[in-house]
């Protein structure tokens, strides 16, 4: 009898072994810009949902256990649900930063800092209106 693990199940697509930090789209877009401008700081693959309300940053597995950034959620994927191919992300979403154009995952500490900076920029812009 042949047994398979979840990651080797022939009925399920192979996925990335990562966690996903989900943030509001406006803050996420600012954070992507900050990460791309940073010296030596790279952004990993980033998903956006079908309604463009949220962005999902792929981060290393285990990040969810210690994630505590207000206004965001970090979810464990256990390698299920996300396919790291440019044309086939998770159902109901698309790539903002596709795999192949990015590192494998965004460093959680760098992402935390970029999200904080993005939130401060948004608050400053909103207070000027």
Notes on the structure:
The protein is α+β, with helices and mostly antiparallel strands and 129 residues long. The chain has two helices and five strands, in the order E-H-E-E-E-E-H. The protein has helices spanning 25-37, 108-127; strands at 19-24, 46-49, 54-59, 73-76, 93-97. The chain has a five-stranded antiparallel beta sheet. Strand 2 (46-49) and strand 3 (54-59) form a beta hairpin. It is globular. The N and C termini lie far apart (67 Å). 29% of the residues are buried.
Q: Within the largest sheet, what's the order of strands?
A: 4-1-3-2-5
What pattern of helices and strands is seen along the backbone?
Answer: EHEEEEH
State which percent range the strand residues make up: 15-25%
Shape: globular
Separation of the first and last Cα atoms: 67 Å
Number of helices: 2
How large, in whole angstroms, is the Cα Rg? 16 Å
- Please estimate the helix content: 25-40%
Structural class assignment: alpha+beta
Main sheet makeup: 5 strands, antiparallel
Parts with pLDDT < 50 across at least 5 consecutive residues = 1-14
Mean pLDDT: 80
How many strand units?
5
Assembly context of the chains: single chain
Which terms would index this structure?
single chain; 129 residues; alpha+beta; five-stranded antiparallel sheet; 2 helices; 26% helix; globular
């Amino acid at each position: 009898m042949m047994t398979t693990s979840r990651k080797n199940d022939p009925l399920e697509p192979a996925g990335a072994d990562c966690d996903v930090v989900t943030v509001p789209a406006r803050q996420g877009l600012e954070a992507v810009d900050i990460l791309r401008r940073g010296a030596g700081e790279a952004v990993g693959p980033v998903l956006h949902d079908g309604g463009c309300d949220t962005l999902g940053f792929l981060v290393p597995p285990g990040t969810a256990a210690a994630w505590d950034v207000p206004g965001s959620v970090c979810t464990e994927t256990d390698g299920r649900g996300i396919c790291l191919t440019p044309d086939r992300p998770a159902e109901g979403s698309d790539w903002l930063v596709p795999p192949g154009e990015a590192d494998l995952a965004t460093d959680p500490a760098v992402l935390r800092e970029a999200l904080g900076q993005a939130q401060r920029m948004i608050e400053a812009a909103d207070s000027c209106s």
